[in-house]
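**Entry details**
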Amino acid sequence: MDNKHTDDSILKTVRGFMASRVIISAAEIDLFTLLARQSHTADEVAYTIGADLRGITILLDALCALGFMVKTNGTYRTESSAATLLSADAPASVRPMVLHMGSVWRNWSKLNNIVLGKAVPDLEKGILDKENFEAFIGAMHVVASRAAPDVVAVVNPGGASRLLDVGGGSGSYILAFLDAQPAMRATLFDKPEVIKMARARVKAAGMTDRVTLVAGDFYKDELPTGHDLALLSAIIHQNSPAENEELYCKIHRALDGGGRIVIRDHVMSPDHTQPLEGALFAVNMLAGTKGGGTYTFQEIEAGLAAAGFTKIKQLQDKRMFSLVEGYKA
């Protein structure tokens, strides 16, 4: 890998936050929704949302330069492909995820104090209200649904008949596993407010008779037993090593003899420097959690082994979609 830097390359990287901030601000103000419906002049936008005319004009022009808005004869409209992804009322909208990144932004602004061990205010829990939280889970489902079939194929559930999805969200992966395994039944374990959304999604998929929904908190509660396959998808990065080992132990107890655990997450190189996405995600966990981070295969293996798992190996090395498995003896 060529690590030679130039003044241009350094400044280009440092300036990267500018485009991000413009998009986040537009999502927070909800410009994409307003201008997806109808073109408006900057004066009309300023009047409608109570904005400063100079400020909104400069922001709208920057969005045009970035390709998110189109300016015609002094009026602005959300670019069509951006409208389908960033309007609040679009079925496949990722706006709630962009709003979440606004919370991430505010946590990252405290990074210096966190690294220097100085006192910091409570980490921001997010700006999503109930409506946007539900939309955020829905947006995560849109993203996860695209990747889930490939994950299922690599996992190769084989003869597994009872899946436990720990922290399974609204059911993206459970539905993919059940589609691939007609004889399989599944249990989705997550917090009560998420279970409510999962129930609607499972019902819409016609899988109600094959999915058991269990509300709980895996930090406090034991997990439902009687499973031969457990999925822990995008969870371990939010935990400390000790929290992960405790969770692995709970999953070990929830599995029948010979059952398998599969972990989906970043898996880092032994020196924790690659992949880049994983190293940056570790910073995100530093800024947003009390003990989370990204882990190497050796660290994941040690935690699983301490919980009693054997035959531990990595199935896939693919950034956040890396997969590690282990078996209960």
In short: The domain at 7-89 is CATH 1.10.10.10 (Arc Repressor Mutant, subunit A). The radius of gyration is 22 Å.
